[in-house]
Amino acid sequence: SSEDIMTIKQEILDELLKGYSNPEDSMGKGGIFDELQKRLLETVMKAEMGNHLGYEKNSITGNNTGNSRNGKSKRIVKTKSTELELEVPRD
Question: I want to staple 55 with a disulfide (CB 3.0 to 4.6 A). Which of 24, 61, 79, 89 is the partner?
Answer without folding.
Answer: 61
